[in-house]
C-alpha cells in the first residue's frame, strides 16, 4: 500500500543510477498519485518541482513557499513510491543555516536528494528574465552548510547554477567547478539554450550533470536519449504532468460550462477502474479483511 523500501536504499540506487551511464529520467509529480503513475510507467525517479508546489497552491514561483510546505509534499510523494525522489529546495529557504536545516528535513521526509540554487533569495523561476545570482563564495557557503548537515552519505546534494543566462556559459562552468569542489554530487545548469550549450558544459565539467527539459522556457527540448549520448546523467521534466493535467481540466470545464454535461469527455477520462488500480484498492481490502475484522471474544 505504501512504500516498503528503505530511504537509504533508494538513495544508494539513485547514486548508482547517476554513475551507471544510463540517464536517469525524473518526471515531475504534482501529487502522490502522479508519482505512482510515474513509477508504473517505468521511469527511474520522481522529481518534486518548487514551481509545481507553488502552482498547486495558486502561487507564483518567486520564493513564496516554505520549507514546511515543500517537505510535506515531498514526504507524501516519497511515501507512495519505491523510486528515488529528487526535490527542488530553491535557495535553501534562507541563509546557510537554513540550507542545513532543509537537508535535515528532506532526509527525514525520505527523499533521495535535493538541489540548491545560486540565485539571490527570494528566487525567480529559472526560465524568466530578471534573475540575479549570489557571489560564488556565498553559494559555496550555502553548499557547505548543506553538506555538513547530511547524515546519509548517499543523500544527493545537487547544485543548480542560474549564471548561464546572466554571466554567460563560461562563468556558469566556473561556478559548477567551484560547487563540485564544495561537495556537490550533481550539477544542474539552468536555462542552457541549445544542444551545443549542453555539449560544451559536459566537456568542461567532470561532475555528474542534470538537464532540465521544461516546456515554454529557454532550453531546446532535447530527447533523453540524446542527452545520454552527450553524457548527461539525469534529466527532469518538472512541470509536464501539471501542464498536461491543467490543460485538460480547463478544456473540459469550458465544455461543461457550455453544454451542461461532461458526456463528451467520458472517453478522455481516466476510468474509475484504472484509478482504483493506482490507488491499490485491492491491497487495502486485504488489509481491512485480515486485520480490522478481528473481534475480541467475550
Explain what the structure shows.
With 298 residues, the chain is α/β, with parallel strands linked by helices. The protein folds into 2 domains: 7-239, TIM Barrel, CATH 3.20.20.60; 246-293, no CATH class. The protein has 13 helices and 8 strands. It has helices spanning 7-18, 32-40, 50-56, 67-79, 96-108, 136-149, 164-167, 169-181, 195-204, 224-230, 240-259, 272-279, 281-291; strands spanning 24-27, 46-48, 85-88, 113-117, 156-161, 186-189, 209-212, 234-237. The chain has an 8-stranded parallel sheet. Strand 7, helix 10 (224-230) and strand 8 form a beta-alpha-beta unit. Helix 5 (96-108) runs parallel beside helix 6. The model has no long low-confidence stretch (mean pLDDT 92).
Descriptive tags:
298 residues; alpha/beta; TIM Barrel; 2 domains; 8-stranded parallel sheet; 13 helices; 8 strands; 47% helix
Summarize the SSE layout with pairings.
Layout: H1 7-18, E1 24-27, H2 32-40, E2 46-48, H3 50-56, H4 67-79, E3 85-88, H5 96-108, E4 113-117, H6 136-149, E5 156-161, H7 164-167, H8 169-181, E6 186-189, H9 195-204, E7 209-212, H10 224-230, E8 234-237, H11 240-259, H12 272-279, H13 281-291
- Tally of strands: 8
CATH architecture label name of the largest domain: Alpha-Beta Barrel
Percent helix? 40-55%
CATH superfamily of the largest domain: Phosphoenolpyruvate-binding domains
The separation of the N and C termini measures 32 Å
Query: How many domain regions?
Result: 2
What is the residue-mean pLDDT, rounded to a whole number?
92
Quaternary state reads: single chain
Order of H and E elements: HEHEHHEHEHEHHEHEHEHHH
Q: Tell me the number of helical segments per DSSP (H or I, 4 or more residues long).
A: 13
User: In angstroms, what is the radius of gyration?
Assistant: 20 Å
Taken as a percent bin, the fraction of beta residues is 5-15%
- Runs in which pLDDT lies below 50 for 5 or more consecutive residues are none
The CATH class label of the largest domain is Alpha Beta
CATH topology call of the largest domain: TIM Barrel
InterPro entries: ICL/PEPM, Isocitrate_lyase_ph_CS, PrpB, Pyrv/PenolPyrv_kinase-like_dom, Pyrv_kinase-like_dom_sf
Cofactor: Mg(2+)
Keywords: Lyase, Magnesium, Metal-binding
Enzyme class: lyase
